From TrEMBL:
Disulfide bond sites: C758-C816
Transmembrane segment boundaries: 569-591, 645-667, 837-859
Chief localization: membrane
Site feature: Crucial to convey clamshell closure to channel opening: I674
Domain Ionotropic glutamate receptor L-glutamate and glycine-binding: 446-513
Keywords: Cell membrane, Disulfide bond, Glycoprotein, Ion channel, Ion transport, Ligand-gated ion channel, Membrane, Postsynaptic cell membrane, Receptor, Signal, Synapse, Transmembrane, Transmembrane helix, Transport
Region (Disordered) location: 896-924
Subcellular location: Postsynaptic cell membrane
CDD domains xref list: PBP1_iGluR_Kainate (cd06382)
Family per record: Belongs to the glutamate-gated ion channel (TC 1.A.10.1) family.
GO cellular component terms, semicolon-separated: ionotropic glutamate receptor complex; postsynaptic membrane
Protein name as catalogued: Glutamate receptor 1
Pfam families linked: ANF_receptor, Lig_chan, Lig_chan-Glu_bd
Length: 946
């Protein structure tokens, strides 16, 4: 209200109103009852700007209420105190009570607000505050909070909102930077979400020293990239400026600002930093209510000739809360005044007969059950006067629009994103344009190899390399439109965690040190690595398998058909053959049944004969063992028993021989045979190992499966060490190991090796299932976009084409396909090298038979020459002529040697007849001649009767 000048004439009605002021605090102005309300603001420089804006919001919120009220008018009475001056705060509170205020708003300091609340509780004056207020130790006492209403979000609920945001961001570890003890108390729930097995949380406090660089450098050296700032708003910008100087505002650093006034700061100089800066806001700065309120403030100050310009996007939270506090209090006064007129009372703090305002408790209780909606959203209180239900905007600093709303939070639904995935993806893809990624990798065929130089060729940059990884990242870059630069990790390792030093090595360390944006190679996605870095979706699936040398091919053996039986068996068989033949001969000489009449038609023949000479006995046993039998059989029981036992023996041996012949001829001999990991675990002769520090080693080291635990124990205790530095070293060790070393490796690398080293093969199936992924720092904003590009390449078949190209086509691939498909146990065709010995034996037998035939022919020529009394030459020509006459089917007893001997034909014929007679007689006494072996009839004889 404007002060009156001394020369102004007072209207009589106004004079009457002035008189009434001295009598009662309830004044009636132009038909409206005046209801005074008090407010206490701070004078401290730290609070001056905030207090000024809050006071403006307080006064013009009252002005707007008065514009719409017909029955009463709120009259503001404002006092100022220092934040630490508790004595004057109490005096100013009592002064306000003496002036008959119906409520006291503020102050903003926790210490002074407690004093005001204590006085208001005693006098039962409503006390309305708009700042963060922690829960007292030992819990809240209802009596102490009976008269206090706090529009600031309840401490535990606000802490839960921050905790939900951290969980949604998947922060495994983070550092908290705070400046006051009460600030650390606000993060109670955040500290409680940390479990004993989680990564450690670092808490760092800053003092009044304005140089924050040493602290920021310590955080940077620790590798931490997630930071929570719980500091006063006036310190936020300076800390972030210094963070930018020490390169702590880079692409993978993320900040969460807990202050609800972060949106009021000018972040223009930091908008183009590459880090993610997130804050919380209690109001929607684009709503009509806040725009209308700011308009009232600006117009009101303009009437007072005080410059005041404020954007709705920069309204302080306390100012908005004062506006809502006045609104909800005026609503309570209006609705209670409709049933009973509310009259202010002047109260005294030091009176012996202490009076309490009778309407105060009723107003507070009404406000607790009343639900309102202000510029800070829904306003709902619990029984203790705390605001437990509210909405928060999650805002993110963008390059174009400053802070931009990306999500909301409320106690019921938690974090709820307002932007679509498509918008997020488009924003990320847009940021990738013309960006250059540093891509870390390691040498390892076929993923990345040093390209061979041609004559006069100079290779620089990415042209130095070739391989699957290079073409993969090149394909992704063409889809997303970024540039890249390949770099090799210094130690050449994939990345493993050292539990002693608490540090990572290899590609993972390169990413953690922010020396690379991506890591592309045959890097397996594991749980341990996933805790340190992020991965895209797998671009290749695989599993652990066993690399082993193929069985050694034995030299071809012409007599390999003898392999089914050992040398000892062959010797025993020959011995048994001779022994049975001799036994058969002896028994047949002894057995009467084997002596038979040579002429069955002559019953009075005095002579019998025995056909079982040694040759016939040998022939019988030979025919039996060959499975062909014989036309002559023994007669006696003893000889039949011997023959039967021999035939049974021959049947068993022949069956065994034929059953095992093919297997022995096709089987390749080896010193040791393995077909699975279980076979390796059960033996100790063949050593096995893996790449040290790799995912395969970690698989066995952490496995709970008993077989793999035994294998790990064997590998760990083996001396010399069975571990290698690379897959190539493991491959060479298998080749040189002479089937005494097996290498455990990932199936993709194993497939590449077996395509080029035909003496190596894969044993068994896959021991597990996993995938290769592109690694990047945790919470990288590009993970979704790069995963999408990988998926697109997979759907278009480009990943399959890349694998076919680098596994089966480039650098000698594909030449071992046939060998790789044929395992050690597969059946192969028999070649002449396996069964050639059979042909040698056959040829040798035929040759021997031919020689024997010639000898028999010559022996017969000699006998003919003697019997016919001709020269051997004439006998030879006559026998040859007859043998070569293939049309002649019958043969005379002797050949006509020449026409000149016709005169002696009769004499020769008579001699021949007499010779034939003598031969017939000799057959009776001598049955072991050549015709007897041919067994023309059952008895083995042929008689000619003249």
């Amino acid at each position: 209200m404007q002060p009156w000048s001394c020369g102004t004439l007072l209207h009589p009605i106004l004079l009457l109103q002035l008189l009434l002021v001295l009598v009662t605090p309830a004044r009636v102005v132009l038909g409206k009852r005046e209801i005074p309300i008090g407010a206490i603001f701070h004078r401290d420089p730290d609070y001056r700007e905030r207090s000024y804006e809050s006071e403006v919001a307080f006064r013009y919120a009252i002005e707007r209420v008065n514009m719409h009220e017909k029955n009463f008018e709120l009259v503001p009475i404002v006092r100022y105190v220092w934040p630490e001056d508790s004595f004057k705060t109490e005096r100013r509170t009592c002064e306000l009570a003496a002036e008959g205020v119906t409520a006291i708003f503020g102050p903003a300091s926790i210490l002074t607000a407690g004093i005001v609340g204590s006085v208001c509780k005693t006098l039962e004056i409503p006390h309305i505050i708009t700042h963060w207020d922690p829960e007292p130790l030992g819990g809240i006492e209802p009596e102490q909070q009976a008269m206090t209403i706090n529009l600031y979000p309840e401490a535990d609920v606000l802490s839960r909102a921050l905790a939900d945001l951290i969980v949604d961001y998947s922060w495994k570890s983070f550092t908290i930077i705070y400046d006051t003890d009460e600030g650390l108390m606000r993060l109670k729930d955040i500290l409680q979400i940390h479990g004993p097995s989680d990564a450690p949380i670092t808490v760092r406090q800053i003092d009044d020293d304005p140089d924050y660089r040493p602290l920021l450098k310590d955080i940077q050296s620790s590798g931490e990239s997630h930071i929570i700032l719980e500091i006063r708003p006036e310190r936020i910008l300076e800390l972030l400026r210094q963070a930018k100087e020490v390169k702590m505002l880079e692409e993978y650093q993320s900040y969460i600002i807990t202050s609800l006034d972060a949106h009021t700061l000018d972040f223009d100089e930091l908008r183009y930093s590459r880090s993610n800066i997130t804050a919380l806001r209690l109001m929607d700065t684009k709503s009509f209510d806040i725009k209308n309120a700011v308009h009232d403030w600006e117009q009101g100050e303009a009437r007072m000739k005080r410059p005041f310009r404020l954007s709705p996007e920069h309204v302080q939270t306390e100012s908005a809360l004062y506006n809502d506090a006045v609104k909800i209090y005026a609503t309570a006064i209006r609705e209670l005044d409709a049933t009973e007129e509310i009259t202010p009372s002047r109260l005294s703090c030091g009176s012996k007969n202490l009076r309490q305002w009778p309407f105060g408790l009723r107003i507070v209780n009404y406000m607790k059950v009343k639900t309102e909606h202000g510029i800070t959203g829904p306003i709902i209180f619990d029984d203790f006067g705390r605001r437990t239900h509210f909405h928060l905007d999650i805002i993110e600093l963008s390059k174009d629009d400053g802070f931009k709303k990306i999500a909301t939070w409320d106690p019921t639904h938690g974090v709820n994103y307002t932007r679509s995935q498509g918008e997020v993806y488009s924003q990320i893809v847009e940021s990738l344009q013309n960006k250059t990624f540093i891509v870390a990798s390691r040498i390892g065929a076929p993923f990345l190899m040093i390209k061979e130089k041609k004559d006069g060729e100079i290779l620089e940059g990415n042209n130095r390399f070739e391989g699957y990884s290079l073409e993969l990242i090149d394909g992704i870059s063409k889809i997303l439109g970024f540039q890249y630069r390949m770099e090799l990790v210094p130690d050449g390792k994939y990345g493993s965690y050292n539990k002693i030093t608490k540090k990572w090595d290899g590609l993972v360390k390169h990413l953690l040190d922010r020396k690379a944006d991506l890591a592309v190679c045959d890097l397996t996605i594991t749980y341990e690595r996933r805790t340190a870095v992020d991965f895209t979706m797998p671009f290749m699936t695989l599993g652990i398998s066993i690399l082993y040398a193929k069985p050694v091919q034995q030299p071809k053996d012409l007599f390999s058909f003898l392999s089914p039986l050992s040398l000892d068996v062959w010797i025993y068989m020959a011995t048994a053959y001779l022994g049975v033949s001799v036994l058969l001969f002896v028994l047949s000489r002894m057995a009467p049944a084997d002596w038979e009449n040579p002429h069955p038609c002559k019953q009075d023949n005095d002579e019998v004969e025995n056909i079982w000479d040694m040759l016939n006995a040998l022939w019988l046993t030979m025919g039996s063992i060959m499975g062909q039998g014989c036309d002559i059989l023994p007669k006696a029981i003893s000889t039949r028993l011997v023959a039967g036992m021999w035939w049974f023996f021959a049947l068993i041996m022949l069956s065994s021989y034929t059953a095992n012949l093919a297997a022995f001829l096709t089987m390749e001999r080896m010193d040791a045979t393995i077909e699975s990991a279980e076979d390796l675990a059960k033996q100790s002769k063949i050593k096995y190992g893996a790449v040290i520090g790799g995912s395969t080693m970690s698989f066995f080291q952490t496995s709970n499966f008993s077989t793999y635990q035994r294998m790990w124990a064997a590998m760990e205790s083996a001396r010399p060490s069975v571990f290698t530095k690379s897959n190539d070293e493991g491959r060479d060790r298998v080749i040189k190991g002479k089937r005494l070393y097996a290498f455990l490796m990932e199936s993709t690398s194993l497939e590449y090796i077996t395509e080029r080293y035909c003496e190596l093969t894969q044993i068994g199936g896959l021991l597990d299932s996993k995938g290769y992924g592109i690694a990047m720092p945790v919470n990288s904003p590009y993970r979704t976009a790069i995963s999408g590009a990988v998926l697109k390449m997979q759907e278009e078949g480009k990943l399959h084409q890349l694998k076919t190209r680098w596994w089966k086509e480039m650098h000698g691939g594909g030449r071992c396909d046939a060998a790789a498909n044929q395992g050690p146990g597969d059946t192969a065709e028999l070649g002449i090298g396996n069964v050639g010995g059979v042909f040698v034996v056959l040829a040798f037998g035929c040759f021997c038979s031919f020689i024997i035939g010639i000898l028999e022919f010559l022996w017969n020529v000699r006998k003919v020459a003697v019997d016919e009394k001709v020269t051997p030459w004439e006998a030879l020509k006559a026998e040859l002529k007859f043998a070569l006459s293939i049309s002649v089917t019958s043969k005379p007893v002797h050949n006509t040697l020449s026409e000149s001997t016709a005169s002696g034909k009769s004499s020769l014929r008579s001699k021949s007849e007499s010779r034939r007679g003598s031969e017939s007689a000799s057959r009776i006494n001598n049955v072991h001649t050549t015709p007897s072996l041919m067994n023309i009839d059952k008895m083995g004889f042929s008689f000619n009767k003249n």
